[in-house]
Specification:
Aldehyde Dehydrogenase, Chain A, domain 1; 2 domains; 15 helices; 20 strands; globular; binds nicotinamide-adenine-dinucleotide
Length: 481
Amino acid sequence: MQTYKMFINGEWVDTESGKTFATINPSTGEELGRVPQAGIEDVDKAVNAANQALPEWSKMTQSDRAKTILRFADLVEEHSEELVDLEVNEHGTPIMLARGFAAAAVDQLEYIACISRGLMGQVLPQSIPNTIGYLQRVPIGVCAVITPWNVPLMMMLSMIGPALVTGNTCILKPASVSSILGVKFTEILEKADLPRGVMNLVTGPGGSVGDALTTHPGVDMVRFTGASDTGKEILMAASQTVKKCVMELGGNNPVIVCEDANVEKAAKLQAGRHYGNSAQNCSTPGRYYVHENVYDEFVEVFANEVKGINVGLPWDEKTAMGPMASLQQLEKVEYYIKTAKEQGARIVCGGSRPSTPPLDKGHFLMPTVVADCTHDMTIVREEIFGPAACILKFSSEEEVVKLANDSEYGLCAGVWTENGSKAMKITDELRVDSVFINMPRMMTPEFPWGGNVRQSGVGKSDSVCGMEEFTDLKFICKSYS
Ligand code: NAD
């Protein structure tokens, strides 16, 4: 079994302590390989390296940094089979989906490189004669990038790409369960000829390695994606040295299906998208509110679609849904389904693990539809983050808007109606960062994601807005009298 290394100051190294831990193939429960378990002293070296590399990297021209990211995009394309292989084996992503992620990764990197050359500052209106005052975009500095396990490759590059291109230096800490993919990602990035110390990788648990990064005085910014509770811990830790924090956190996203919606289309498209990546996506709807007059039709069409989903080993080309990424996450979703049953919900399909080989060995859960839910049920109140969809009934628009907004999250929402003005009225009332009308959530690099609604995040990601988060606006005033 291979033991991997971390990347600090341009070299592949072991930890000072020599400790390692295993990552597991979620389809088989077998060990895939071992990675270093970093300690405070390793984090310290990585932060020092990033600080030393900062002056040179931040002063490089924007066009040279953009070219480095374009080289990286080419390398990702060249190495996409290895990346796909790891997404499949370390995360359990079905191979067809993993190939889509690899192609999207190249596209996103090209986008990042291109728009970076259009980032602008601002000249301010003159109020003192013979002076010019302007805002110049400058990098924040040393950026700790802490990623979740749920879409591992896309998460890493969507944060590391814009951080580097804008002149910051980085220390990546991938989620423990996706550590080997973090190593491969860094190996590929190394080939793009980055100066020493610009990109560093440390691996290990969030509680120790993540904490060492977020409390380190040499780190200027934390770019984090993960659970809201972890985000709160990081905000507290980072506040001691007043770091900039940008965070994409949890969601419990409502989708509203009105009486006048195209119900069949809504049910088919939403069901078709819901279980991709085993519904381990922050944008997956947590609550479908369906008008009482079209409720039965929606549940029937939705469940029929779900029954047709091919659950299987992720390396099988026919598989549409693979395992969950970890046993811990599987058990959490099983707990939500159990409490939903106890609280009176109806399991229309799924609800259990497959019992026949080979799926009985991995972290599989059959795609589940939970109907007749009520707003107070645990499964409706909390973020499920797994393959179970909750369906609830509503009777008026006023009621459904209130229910949709009654959440500690506010990441995104969906609205289905054939009435254009109703769609806009509901959209205006929803307290969320993004709304998708008559479509499930779609991602492209141009679209921003996240924002500042309730406990779903701080700051934007993706698009130009997400890139600007990695820059500060330095004010300069010059007299020419
Ligand atoms: P998590 O919060 O458990 O872990 C995320 C990362 O934080 C991991 O690398 C982990 O090791 C690290 N970490 C854990 N404790 C830490 C600490 N005290 N200090 C520093 N780092 C620490 O999240 P997860 O289980 O990997 O991911 C699932 C969550 O991520 C869900 O809540 C999901 O909604 C959220 N998410 C949100 C978005 C979004 O765009 N809003 C996208 C993807 C995932």
